[in-house]
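--- STAGE predict ---
source: upstream dedup step, 1 unique chain passed
mode: sequence only
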Amino acid sequence: MEEPRIRLGTDDAWLELARIHADSWQITADWSSWLRADFTADLSAAEVVDFAARMLSHLCAPSGRRLSAAVTPGRNNPLTLKAEPVGDGFAFFVRLTPNGDDDVCHLQMEIDPIATWELRKTFGALHSALMV
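--- STAGE serialize ---
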């Protein structure tokens, strides 16, 4: 059985969160094959389920407002997504912090707009895969 994962973006700029095993996740971001971040983070399934549920909650609300969600609320947070409404979807601003909430060692990148229906499907699949 394939481990749960989520991938946002296109070949130009993308982010992937993939479970390696139990409480170990691989976080990878790539910008046009010029800049790449790739590291392992210790995240529980409950943390990732909560993250996916919060994203789904924002995406299912008819508001079309900005949204932001961190994978974990603590200082060891490796990933934060901020989404800006654009047309019928959202553009993402990704902040990766391999050493936790760190202003010195981090990567920020943008991901072009993704349709809201596609985001609901993507986060819904991640949520469902972890609820099994």
